[in-house]
Every structure is written in C-alpha cells, then in structure tokens.
C-alpha cells in the first residue's frame, strides 16, 4: 500500500473504496490504482507468481493494461497466459477521468486458471464422447449389415436344404429303378436257365444287368448317406445363422437405445465447453 499523499478528488474517492473491492468477489484478484505517472495503491493476488510483493511506485509502461487504458482513454481488456506469472489471468483496466482529463487508471487482474482447467476437461470429454458416438454409429451400421448378411445366408441355406431334399427324392427314384432293374435281370436269368443252352448268351447279359443294378443301388445309398450329412450340416448352419441374426438384431436394437443417450452426452459436453468459454466472456463489451 502507498503512504497517504495528496491526489485529486476522483483518485481520493477510488483510494477510499479500493480496500473493499476484493471483498465483493470470492476469487483471488489483483487490484492496481495508478495516477498518470506511477502505481499509487495495489493488492497483489496471492495465487500469482509475481516477482514483487507490491508494485507501488512502479511506472506503468507498454504492456501494462493500466498504461494502455490511460493512453487509449478507454477500457482495455487483456488475457495473459500462465507463462508470465504461473497462472493464466485476465486484466481489465479503465481510465479515471476528472473534468474530462485522464488522471489515472484502475486495473483488476483475475485468474482464469479454473476456466482453463474446466475448458481442458470439457474438450477432453467432448472428444471422448464424439469418439464413442462415432464408434456406436459404426457398430450399429455393422450390426445392421451383419443382420442383413445373416438373413441372406439364411435364405441361401434354406434354398440349399430344399435342393438337398429334391436330390434325396431323385436318389429314391434311382434306388427304385435299380431295384426294378435287378428284378428284371433276375427274371431274365430265370428265363435263360429255362431255355438251357440256347439262353446262355442272354444269361450273361442278365448277370451284367443285375451287377449294374446292384452297383447303382450301392451308389445311390452312398450318395444318400452323403446327402444326409450335408443336410445335417445345412441345418446346423441354418440354426447358427438364425442365432446370429437374433444376436445382431438385439445388438442393433441396444445400440439404437444407446444412441440418444450418447447424443445427449455430446450436447452436454458442448454445453460445458460453452460454459467454460462464458466464464470469462467480456459481457460488458457486448452491451
């Protein structure tokens, strides 16, 4: 604090109320009052790493917000990074007039470290939520695609089952033809035996027909066994496809329910970012 000196009435009024100004705020603020030559009263904020306990007697120069306010004869606002005094802060200065003459300036410094930390948290939260939203949208799209693929596979497996069933019917027909051919060969052999020597050539043909019928019957049975295995495999595939379709449908439905919540979180994150910016918005300059 400065010793009592004789100043103009306006400066005396400011000096009279200055000790009470910081009691109206809950933040740690700095307060400087200067005439046109030097700092005549101050309160140095405790959280700032300034190099002096008091700046009374210091001559404001370029870069000082008080100096700029006096020179420009208007309110000046500056935002200073934490590189200078350990914490980021905003300095606001207004010139003090008496009879239209600038007789000094009053400046307040307020830390915005809380705003900066809130801003960083809000931005990090916003990025995380945006990434989650993007992943949810991607998973939802993939779930829908998986569901569509599952439905298509289900149709294919069902068609395959129908074709196997049709093949099984054909194999049954072949089996019947083989049985009838075998019967025909047996009858031919009996007839050849009945006629004796004259039926020997026909007997050979009858034996070959019976062998062909036997081979056809055996082949049809083997094919039938193979088709049975294919049919069982197709049924398992069909069951798995149906299960996959149910799971993907459930997943898509669950993600659809999650999406509105993620959107709300995204809006909330945007609101926090805006709130962080508004904490030190110069509303006076807007009016």
Automatic annotation (TrEMBL):
Pfam families the record matches: MCPsignal
Family annotation (SUPFAM superfamilies): Methyl-accepting chemotaxis protein (MCP) signaling domain
Keywords associated with the record: Transducer
Biological processes per GO annotation: signal transduction
One GO cellular component term: membrane
UniProt xrefs under InterPro entries: MCPsignal_dom
Superkingdom, natural source: Bacteria
Transmembrane segments: none
SMART domains: MA
Ranges for domain Methyl-accepting transducer: 163-287
Annotated PANTHER family: LYSOZYME-LIKE PROTEIN-RELATED, METHYL-ACCEPTING CHEMOTAXIS PROTEIN MCPB
Name listed for the protein in its UniProt record: Methyl-accepting chemotaxis protein
């Amino acid at each position: 604090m400065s010793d009592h000196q004789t100043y103009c009435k306006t400066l005396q009024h400011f000096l009279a109320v200055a000790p009470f100004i910081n009691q109206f705020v809950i933040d740690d603020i700095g307060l400087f009052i200067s005439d046109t030559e030097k700092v005549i009263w101050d309160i140095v904020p405790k959280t700032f790493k300034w190099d002096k306990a008091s700046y009374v007697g210091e001559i404001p120069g370029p870069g000082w917000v008080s100096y700029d306010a006096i020179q420009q004869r208007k309110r000046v606002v500056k935002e200073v990074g934490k590189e200078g005094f350990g914490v980021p802060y905003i300095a606001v200065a207004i010139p003090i007039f008496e009879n239209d003459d600038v007789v000094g300036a009053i400046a307040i410094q307020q830390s915005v470290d809380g705003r900066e930390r809130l801003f960083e948290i809000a931005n990090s939260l916003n990025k995380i939520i945006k990434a989650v939203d993007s992943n949810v949208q991607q998973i939802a799209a993939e779930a829908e695609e998986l569901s569509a693929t599952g439905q298509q596979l289900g149709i294919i497996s069902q068609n395959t089952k129908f074709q196997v069933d049709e093949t099984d019917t054909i194999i049954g027909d072949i089996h019947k033809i083989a049985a009838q051919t075998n019967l025909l060969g047996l009858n031919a052999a009996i007839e050849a035996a009945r006629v004796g020597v004259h039926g020997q050539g026909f007997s050979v043909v009858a034996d070959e027909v019976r062998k062909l019928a036997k081979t056809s019957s055996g082949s049809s049975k083997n094919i039938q066994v193979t088709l049975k295995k294919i049919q069982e495999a197709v049924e398992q595939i069909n069951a798995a496809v149906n299960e996959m379709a149910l799971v993907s449908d459930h997943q898509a439905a669950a993600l659809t329910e999650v999406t509105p919540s993620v959107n709300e979180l995204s809006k909330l994150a945007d609101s926090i970012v805006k709130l962080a910016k508004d904490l030190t918005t110069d509303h006076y300059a807007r009016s």
